[in-house]
Amino acid sequence: MISSTAAGSTVSTPMMSSTASGSTASTPMMSSTAAGSTASTPMMSSTSAGATVSTVATPAETTASTIATPAVATSTAASTKTPVEALLTAISSEGCTETLLCAQEPASCDPSVTTCYFVSAQQTEGLNFGFSLSGESEGYIAVALSTDSSLGGGDITYICANNEGSFEFIGASLNNSALIRQTVTVNSVKGLINGATIQCTFTATIPDATTRAVSTSYSLAIVTGTLSSTGVLGNPVARVQTQVLDLSDASSSTSILTTVATTTVTTTTVATSAVANSGRPTHLALSQALLIILGSMGLALL
How far is CA 257 from CA 53, 206, 210, 244, 248, in A? Predict the structure, then answer.
């Protein structure tokens, strides 16, 4: 049925063919080949009794293997900023010595009424504490935890900062005079910026004070400093520091509070040395003046 071949070619396309007994038939259908070529497309042949038919299976259609083009790797750097919410209620000193361990300067000040440096801690469970922090700073205010009352030995520090008018929470380690950003375990962070006043609350899992008999024994320090437009934390200035105390004992609040000079953490000893040495030039000047006077009196007698 509609078969055409060029000279010298052989075509066999069986399609719906039937043969009588002892005969062989092939009905080509819609096949065409070029000269010298051979084509065979066997399909649905049938024979009557005694006929011999060779049925060749049609090769399965070749399925092209599709090689997936690797997707272009794209990644968006995860934000390192701690999620914060707005602080809607002003921090208060209510509950100090009863349910809250508090440190403040001036002593017994209430940050909901007046401007002062204030920090409170309240144990919720084990090493988990709720903190409240308030004070004035153009950059940041922070609370540092020290196991030895000496700041700068890798003390974990929780920072509430004014980042160009927006509140930002930062975790850090205080090493000597440098605050090095690091991840801290905190949640439920709330903050408020009101002019130069910064207030914040948060819950934190503090490190185990392994150097102390009580795992929650720490010295609390309130420090302030600057925050540059590029996020660089300035050297901290100590405002308040307590002796080492058990943060879980609210009754130990103000009785052992120690205030410190408002100098940077690492310049305290330097400043002390400067004061101690400042007397030497004065003594030297007085000795020289006395010698001049005695010399003048001797010349007058001559």
Answer: 109, 21, 23, 10, 16
